[in-house]
Specification:
55% of the residues lie in helices and 0% in strands. The protein is mainly α. The two termini are 16 Å apart.
Length: 319
């Protein structure tokens, strides 16, 4: 097991790299990317921002990390999300773009005085991946605070309350539980078998919970070995939380190197930045230690913001 300080810095950097690589190609069709595959940072395309610019995936990750540096406080968490949304905090250039509808509505509820854990959307249409993109800091917070980690009721409550600030539908809560458990298990044991066991461990837990049992079937593909061997044209790389997890784990299971997994993820198209970001983060754990492509690092914007946020977290009592 590598030191959590090393892995935390690596993971936040990986989030930003996958995000920035995919930003110019968000909503692009897969067929176009098959003809002209992505492997370098490109600027001034989908959102007309410079090459290496990251989006909400990295901003919410940094905001979450900064908040958790002060402890687990959902009011502080949402206050920082609101500052990001309205004023461009935690962004490379002081502006937000590509904000998900469910997340923006949750922030407006918080601004109106709703309790943080009640701000998330609860309809079936509120199952986008806006909560998944910010789970990694919480995973490291739990990892540091837990002695003898187990995916149990206490841990799950932390994950669900944190997720519910923007996404409260049971399906989104399950997805966050799966991803957080996988992150922690990969820190302990970085291999694909451990990753798949963590998925099963999470789903087995939810099968035993009356409030979630009916939702577990939506994630059946994650336990189907045939699904993970399918060609890419069967993979739906949409912002829907189930499609996002399916895409991420498909990329990881069909790659043996960090670079291959990340480029495979962004070249699925559609929600390229979020799927690229989450895949990059998990791949940095699965294939640790990782040497990030130097040309990606050279063009990555806001690197000092990442360093400051991680350094502050590691100096706190919570990481």
């Amino acid at each position: 097991m590598y030191s959590t300080s090393y892995l935390l810095f690596q993971c936040v950097t990986a989030v930003a790299l996958g995000d920035a690589l995919g930003v110019p190609y968000q909503c692009h069709k897969r067929q176009d990317l098959l003809e002209n595959p992505i492997n370098t940072m490109v600027g001034h395309k989908e959102n007309d921002v410079p090459a290496g610019t990251w989006s909400d995936d990295t901003s919410l990750t940094i905001a979450s990390l900064v908040s958790l540096t002060q402890g687990y406080n959902l009011h502080d968490l949402m206050m920082r999300y609101s500052q990001w949304y309205h004023f461009g905090d935690y962004t490379p250039f002081g502006m937000t773009f590509g904000v998900g509808k469910t997340t923006s509505e949750a922030i407006r509820r918080f601004d109106a005085g709703i309790q943080p854990e009640l701000c998330g959307g609860t309809s079936e249409m509120d199952n986008g991946n806006g909560a998944l993109m910010r789970m990694m800091p919480l995973a490291f917070y739990i990892l540091t605070s837990s002695k003898g980690y187990r995916f149990n009721d206490q841990v799950v409550k932390l994950i669900h309350d944190y997720t519910a600030t923007t996404h409260r539908h049971p399906r989104s809560l399950i997805a966050s539980g799966i991803l957080t458990n996988v992150i922690i298990r990969l820190v302990y044991n970085p291999n694909k078998y451990a990753m798949l066991r963590a998925v099963k461990e999470s789903l087995d837990y939810y099968r035993q919970q009356a409030a979630f049992a009916d939702e577990v079937d939506h994630f059946y593909q994650l336990e189907d070995p045939h699904f993970l061997r399918q060609p890419s044209n069967h993979i739906k790389s949409s912002p829907y939380v189930v499609d996002t997890l399916n895409s991420v784990f498909w990329c990881l299971m069909n790659s043996e190197q960090y670079y291959v997994a990340v480029t495979r993820a962004v070249n699925l198209g559609n929600d390229a930045d979020t799927i690229g970001s989450i895949t990059s983060m998990l791949a940095s754990l699965l294939f640790a230690p990782v040497n990030f492509p130097q040309d990606w690092l050279n063009q990555l914007k806001g690197r000092n913001q990442i360093k400051v946020a991680v350094s502050s977290a590691l100096l706190s009592d919570y990481f």
